[in-house]
User: Fold Dual specificity phosphatase 19b from Oryzias melastigma.
Amino acid sequence: MHSLSQEIQGFSLTRLRKQVTHVTTVTGRRLLERRNAEGDEQVEQVEELDQGAGYGFVEDKSLDLQVGVVRPFLLLASQDAAHDIETLCKFKVSHVLNVAYGVSNLFPHQMVYKTLQILDLPDTDITSYMEECSTFIDQAKEQGGVVLVHCNAGVSRSSSIVIGYLMLREGLSFDDAFSQVKQARPSSCPNPGFYQQLQNYECKRPQNPF
Assistant:
């Protein structure tokens, strides 16, 4: 029977199987890591990084042209829809309420625009913009037009404005307004600060808006 020390002395690195490990880095490079019999590590790149490859994620370059019809005169969407003339014509948009930051208005000779550069930050006072935005939406409605409300992604700022409009002008509760907006555009999701402000806004808004 051999002792442990004898086993160790008789052990040879050459008896080890060569190891090969496939590695994909966060920048998308694919590598082969090899360890030879002497224990030395060798790294070989087996696939070049594609131009435009993401850093640990796949970049989605598809346009978001989904338009949520909240009311026949009130639409909710992203900047992609607001910049696509075919989509605007399809939904008979006449007015555009742009509440994004740094997003231009592309069709000033064809649409009536109102721009409020609102930051999508939880501590931004979103309710302070409700009356001004609601007045613009009312103007579009009174003129027989259709207003598209958009921010960058059509998720937080614009959805909050539309929810606030339904609460302020139609007297809906926050839960009802949020549910209707969510049904029209499923991606709608006010940031946590806006969400809390809108819940509090329900307590402060006039009980009989008309």
